[in-house]
TrEMBL record:
Domain AB hydrolase-1: 40-147
Alphabetized PANTHER family for the sequence: CHOLESTEROL OXIDASE (PTHR47470), FAD-DEPENDENT OXIDOREDUCTASE 2 FAD BINDING DOMAIN-CONTAINING PROTEIN (PTHR47470:SF1)
Keywords from the named record: FAD, Flavoprotein, Oxidoreductase
Cofactor(s) the protein requires to work: FAD
GO molecular function, one term: oxidoreductase activity
The protein's name in its UniProt record: AB hydrolase-1 domain-containing protein
Family, as annotated: Belongs to the GMC oxidoreductase family.
Entry keyword annotation includes Flavoprotein: yes
Length: 347
């Protein structure tokens, strides 16, 4: 069950529901002091974290900003959430089963005819699959951070995901950055020891494990200069298991340069790039200029793909001084990033 962040200025409700294949999920409905005057916006987290990644202990979070703008805020815990029991999953399953069910649940709960979405990392890739397959006709605006349809990563990350990850998958069904603080068994100990020796960028071993797991760089998902001390400590509890099934699919995607399916599921095409997107939703592609998880080229290629099919509808923004997750967690993100997100949601 979800463990919501305790904030006296937020009213938080956990709404259980099921994906279209029966998998249990939750939505975190957040309201503020004033009733919403705009429609619903759904926030979708990445792999191996949870909905609360949008509510770090900064003075002003994205949730705060959206509430102040009058939005009805819903944060999704899809099957990758660490607030749910860990299961193996693929992007195809999430696209076919989780996101359509979540959109329908929010619309039924609010009575709205449409909604907007802010989607991050693997929440963004899977949501993009759902949208381009025509499974989310009620979504009219999608703000995508870091990666969406195309997958361009640093050379060291490519080596890890194509060579190291298959070896690890023979030994464990999951890998977890949380092993930095708590682990049992020889494999977590070996990996933690390796990271302790090779990543010396800070004293937070979970932060260092995150960098080994998800990208290249020291650190990989953010710049330390962008995180305040409270947030840097808080991330220790915000990362856990990620299934090797995901890394296997992402390795295929990296080889192809774009998302590829690994299973045939109802409603999903055989190729995600062979036809025009079946969505009227406007996309705003965001990329941190210093992203060492998915290079900014990823979002540029996705923007160009969409622009070839519907010129002038979508937008691309590269944000200097930011990387991957500090676009959401940064101590100055409310000044540097969130106004851009709001302008795309309200424009």
């Amino acid at each position: 069950m979800s463990r919501p962040t305790i904030r006296t200025d937020h009213v938080t409700e956990i709404v259980p529901f099921t994906a279209l294949d029966g998998h249990p999920l939750t939505l975190v409905h957040v309201t503020g002091r004033e009733a919403p005057v705009r429609g619903p916006v759904m926030l979708v987290h990445g792999a191996g974290v949870r909905a609360e990644i949008f509510r770090p202990p900064t003075s002003r979070t994205l949730v705060d900003v959206l509430l102040d703008e009058g939005f009805d805020v819903w944060m999704l815990n899809w099957r990758a959430s660490i607030d749910l029991e860990p299961v193996p999953w693929t992007l195809d399953e999430v696209a076919a089963y989780d996101h359509p069910a979540a959109v329908h649940k929010v619309l039924k709960a609010t009575g709205a005819q449409s909604l907007k979405a802010v989607v991050h990392c693997q929440g963004s890739t899977s949501f993009t699959i759902s949208a381009l397959a025509g499974l989310l006709p009620e979504v009219d605006t999608i703000v995508s951070n870091a990666v969406s349809l195309h997958t361009v990563i640093p050379s060291w990350s490519r080596f890890k995901i194509q060579t190291v990850a298959p070896l690890i998958a023979r030994l464990t069904p999951y890998i977890s950055p949380a092993w930095g603080d708590r682990s049992e068994g020889w494999l977590p100990w070996v990996m933690k020891t390796f990271v302790r020796l090779t990543h010396r960028e800070c004293d937070n071993l979970v932060c260092r494990m995150v960098s080994f797991t998800y990208g290249s760089g020291f650190p990989a998902l953010w710049s330390h200069r962008n995180l305040d001390a409270a947030t840097h400590d808080w991330v220790r509890g915000e990362f856990a298991e990620v299934p090797m099934t995901f890394f296997a699919q992402m390795a295929d995607c990296v080889t192809s340069g774009h998302l590829v399916p690994v299973s045939r599921l109802p409603g999903l095409p055989e190729s995600y790039v062979a036809q025009a997107p079946k969505t009227d939703a406007r996309f705003a592609f965001l990329a941190g200029e210093e992203n060492l998880c998915f290079l900014p080229e990823s979002q540029r290629r996705s923007f160009e793909f969409f622009n070839r099919h519907r010129a002038g509808k979508d937008t691309l923004h590269t944000v200097p001084g930011y990387g991957h997750l500090d676009m959401l967690l940064g101590k100055n993100a409310a000044r540097d990033v969130f106004p851009l997100i709001v302008s795309e949601l309200t424009g």
